[in-house]
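README, section 4: Worked example with a bound small molecule

Sections 1 through 3 covered apo chains. Here we extend the same pipeline to holo records, where the ligand is supplied as SMILES alongside the sequence. The molecule in this example is flavin mononucleotide. Nothing else about the input changes; the structure line simply encodes the ligand pose together with the chain.
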Amino acid sequence: MRPVLFKQQAECAHTRTLHGLARVSRSAMLCGAVESLFGAPELPIELFSLRFPNPVGLAAGMDKNAEAVPGWAALGFGFSELGGVTWHAQPGNPEPRMFRAVTEEAIVNRMGFNNHGAQALAEKLTAWRASGHWPAHPIGVNLGKSKITPLENAAEDYANSFRVLRDLANFFVVNVSSPNTPNLRQLQDKTALDEILAAIHEANTSDKQEGREKLHSALTNHRSSKPILVKVAPDLSFDALDQILELVGPRQIAGIIATNTTITRPDSGDANAKRVYAETGGLSGRPLRSRSTAVVRHLFRQTRAQLPIIGVGGISSADDAWEKITAGASLIQIYTGLVYEGPGLPKRIVSGLVARLKLEGLIGLKSAVGIAVT
Ligand SMILES: Cc1cc2nc3c(=O)[nH]c(=O)nc-3n(C[C@H](O)[C@H](O)[C@H](O)COP(=O)(O)O)c2cc1C
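The generated complex, written as C-alpha cells:
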C-alpha cells in the first residue's frame, strides 16, 4: 500500500486511510478480520485504575473526530487518544499543512486543531457506545484551545470541552504543547496552566448535572472523576518542566505525556527533507526520538518514579519503545511510526516487548519501567 499512499499528498492519504478504517469499524465482522491479522498479544499494565491490555497507544491527532474508535483496538493498540478537540468546531490552517520527509521518516504538520468541536465528538462517542462496538481498551480525549478563544479565557474553553465529554472517555489530556495554535504553548507557563487545571478539576469533582445525567448521578450515587494528564512540548527546558511538576500534587495531575512535536529542526543533507523542514509547523518521527526520550528520563528522575509517564516521539520499533519504557515511560504512543511502518506496527512492538522482557528475565512490564535511569 505504501507506494500508492505516498504518491498522494500526506493529508489526502491520511483521510483516505482513516475513512477505510472507519468503514471497518462499523462492521463487527471486518473488525474481527482485521484483529485476526493485526491483533497484538497481551502485555497488560494497570495505571490510573484502568487496565491497558498492552502499552502501545494511538497518539493524539490521528483520529481527531473519533471516526474509527473500534478500528484502533482491532489494529492491536492497547489504548487510543482521540482528538485534539476544541470547544468550538474549527477548520484548522489552510492546506497543504502536512508534509512527509520520507528518507528521515519524519512529518512536519501545522494542522491547527482542525476538528468538529467537543459537542460533535460527544455525539460521536455516544453513538459508538450505543452501537455495541465500543472497544475493550481505554479511550482518552486530547483537549486543545479553540483558536478564537483569547488566551485569558483558555481555562473556560478547556473546561467546557471537558464537561460535555467527561462521562464518555476514560482519561483526558490537557494539550498546551501544540505549536500550531498561536501562543498556545504559553499556556505551559505554571500560572496559566494552573488556571486551566483548576477549572477542569472543578468540573471533574462537581456532581452538579442537569436532567438525565442528574438522575443517573442520583441512581449511581456518584460520578467518578477522570484522570487528567498534561502533554508537554519537547522544546521546554528542564527548568520549565520542573515548574509544571510543581502542579502535580495541588492539581492532582494523573500523569504526563512526553512529548508533542518540536519546532526545532535537525540538519539534513536530503533535498526533500530540507524543503519539508523549511515548512512552518511541528516535527514528528525519527528525528524527535532522542529528545523526547530525554524529556521522559528527566520527568522520571524528578518524580522519583511516582508519576506515570506516557512516552511518545519517534517510536517506530520495539527497540524504540524499549528505550522509552526503560527511560521511565509506563505507556507509549505512536503516530508517525504508523505512517512509515504500517498497520502491523503495534503488534510488532508488543511482540518485541514481550520477547525483550523474557530475554532480560523480567516479569511484567512495570518491572522494566525506568530501569535504564541512574
Ligand atoms: C498530523 C499530526 C497531527 C497531530 N495532532 C495532535 C493533536 O491534535 N494533539 C496533540 O496533542 N498532538 C498531536 N500530534 C502530536 C502527536 O500526538 C505526537 O505527540 C507527535 O507526533 C510525536 O509522536 P510521533 O513521533 O510518533 O509522531 C499530531 C501529530 C501529527 C503528525
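What to look for in the output: The pocket of flavin mononucleotide is lined by residues 59-61, 83-84, 98, 107, 109, 111, 113, 142, 175, 178, 231, 260-261, 284-285, 288, 312-315, 334-337 (CB under 6 Å). The chain has 14 helices and 13 strands.

Section 5 describes how to batch many such records.
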